[in-house]
Design brief:
heterodimer, A: 78 residues, mainly alpha, F1FO ATP Synthase, 87% helix, rod-shaped, B: 251 residues, disordered N terminus, membrane (chain A), ATPase_proteolipid_c-like_dom (chain A)
Chain lengths: 78, 251
């Protein structure tokens, strides 16, 4: 058993950033689900709001991407 | 990533990240800034494909469009409507730039899905340049068009006075984080999708689960075509949102 404890912590940290992906999944799911429930109530207004849907999804996803960024930084920069 | 191979005797010796390695096409494999790599090659193919569709395809200017011209017109109209709807009528002046961005990203993403090809947009170096160009373009445009009024973007006048400094700090951070999220969203999505396909391809070496693996690859491939388009769309629409902020910085 060789290797140092910092290496161990690094890889555990990289694994833990995957939790951020779950958070982003909840966020994106929320956006899409609320859009769908709104769209089913008022289908005539749905088409005009798809751009807003994707913008909202992109912003929710951005925070998941930051966890990926942290993982990359841990793997290659720290 | 998977540098320590699982041993040559193992059937699972696959390297899902190897596909993103830039390889020199000529010479002894050392890479300088001027070396022609597969990244250069696939970027050139992307540009050629765009020229083929948009210039050669619509050369006839027919009233009843041919197949190629219909696709080109569809793409043009799609981006034009997006700019008009999201960024406003006065942003139409910057439509050529946004059309360039959209067509480059969508072609690079979809060409990257061809077997044995290289996804140029999976590299943060590529998407980072695109995002930084958008960021600096939008920031400079905001100051040129509005002068110091552009800073009203950070000073939210509809909020109570006491929380405005705090909100200004948050807005400032979120403004400067834009190029980071803008570039990594695209690169991360493309890289992750291709790596997942490669991982499933690695499982195909085990005879017992290879049918499942092939089904999974097919399903992922379908999803990736969708993702390739949606990520280009998201990149473009966010550019439009940033452009709107620059032209009308009132919060």
């Amino acid at each position: 058993m060789e290797g140092n404890i910092a290496e161990l912590g690094k890889y555990i940290g990289v694994g833990l950033t995957a939790i951020g992906m779950g958070g982003a999944a909840i966020g994106v799911g929320n956006v899409a689900g609320n859009y769908l429930s709104g769209a089913l109530r008022n289908p005539s207004a749905a088409a005009s709001q798809t751009a807003t849907l994707f913008i909202g999804m992109a912003f929710a996803e951005a925070l998941g991407i930051f966890s990926f960024l942290v993982a990359l930084l841990l793997m290659f920069a720290v | 990533m998977a540098t320590e191979a699982h041993g040559s005797e193992s059937s699972l010796a696959f390297h899902p990240m190897d596909q993103f390695k830039p390889v020199s096409l000529f010479g002894d494999g050392t890479i300088h800034w001027y070396t022609v790599t597969n990244v250069t090659l696939w970027m050139a193919i992307t540009v050629l494909a765009i020229v083929l569709l948009l210039v050669v395809g619509s050369r006839g200017r027919a009233m009843v469009p041919s197949k190629g011209q219909s696709i080109a017109e569809l793409m043009y109209g799609f981006v034009y409507k997006m700019v008009e709807d999201v960024a406003g009528k006065d942003a139409i002046r910057y439509f050529p730039y946004i059309m360039t961005l959209f067509s480059f990203i969508v072609f690079a993403n979809i060409l990257g899905l061809l077997p044995l090809s290289f996804t140029t947009t999976s590299h943060i170096a590529v998407t980072g340049v695109l995002a930084l160009l958008v960021f600096s373009f939008v920031t400079i445009l905001g100051f040129v068009k509005n002068g110091s009024k552009f800073l009203a973007l950070f000073w939210i006048s509809s909020a109570p006075l006491a929380v405005r400094p705090l909100l200004a700090v948050i807005e400032l951070i979120s403004y400067f984080v834009r190029p980071v999220s803008h570039s990594i969203r695209l690169a991360g999505n493309m890289m992750a999708g291709h790596a997942v396909i490669k991982v499933f391809a690695g499982f195909a070496a085990i005879a017992a689960i290879s049918p499942v693996s092939i089904l999974a690859i097919t399903a992922m491939y379908g999803l990736e075509i969708l993702v390739a388009f949606i990520q280009a769309y998201v990149f473009t629409i966010l550019t439009c949102v940033y452009l709107k902020d620059a032209l009308h910085p009132v919060h």
